[in-house]
C-alpha cells in the first residue's frame, strides 16, 4: 500500500496523559493530509511505543526506509544527542534519515496566531496587544537565540510588542514578560505558548499567565503544524543508502 519512506514522528513523552493524546491527535491529522504516507509515532520516554520498539517492529515487517522526524520546536539537546543516539541503535537493515526539527517556520507563527484568535483576539487587536512568546526553555544557547529571533520577527507582523519567556532553564519567566509588556503600555497582554503539547512546563506557563488578558492554547494538532511535519518529511527525501546505525 505504501511505497514511500515511513514517517516516524519522535515525541519526547510525558507522565501527563494529555501529552500523548495531543501527539496522537496531531499524527492523525498528518495521516489525513497524506494517506499515501505511513506515519508512526514513537516516544523517547514515559510513553509507549518507544522509538526503539517502533524501529524494531518496522524492521521485522521488512520496512527499509524511514524518515525520523523530531517533534521538537528547536534544535537543542534532544535533537542533537538523544534522538541520534536512539537512531544509531536501530536495526541495521533500516535506512534512516533524521529530518529537521519543526522550528523556526512561518507555519508555526501562523499556528500561534490561530491559537490567539481562537482565544478571543482578532487581527484588529494586534497593534494594541503585546504578546509573550512562552517556550519551555533550554540550556542550549542556540535554542534560546532562536526563540529570541522568532519574537523579533513576529513583532514585525503588527503586534504592539513581543517578548520571549521561558518556563525553565532561562529567563525571563512568563509572568515577568507579562509585567514588562504592561509597563510598555500595551492595552492588553496575551500569552502564546510555543509548545506542542500539554504537560508540566506548559502548565507552568499557564500559571505565569495569570495576570495576562489572554492565554492561548498549545500548538497541538493545529493544521499548520501538521502541514509543517509533512514539509520536513518531504525535505528529508528518500534516505541515503548508508543506515544511521552503520
CATH class of the largest domain: Alpha Beta
Number of E strands:
8
In terms of quaternary structure, the protein is single chain
Mean pLDDT: 94
Compute the CA-based radius of gyration: 19 Å
Number of domains: 2
CATH architecture identity of the largest domain: 3-Layer(aba) Sandwich
Structural class: alpha/beta
Enumerate the spans where pLDDT stays under 50 for 5 or more consecutive residues: 239-246
Strand content range: 15-25%
The level of helicity is 40-55%
Report the total helices.
8
Tell me the CATH topology of the largest domain: Rossmann fold
Largest beta-sheet details = 4 strands, parallel
Overall 3D form: elongated
The end-to-end span amounts to 28 Å
Secondary-structure element pattern, one letter each = EHEHEHEHEHEHEHEH
Query: Numbering strands along the chain, what is their spatial order in the largest sheet?
Result: 2-1-3-4
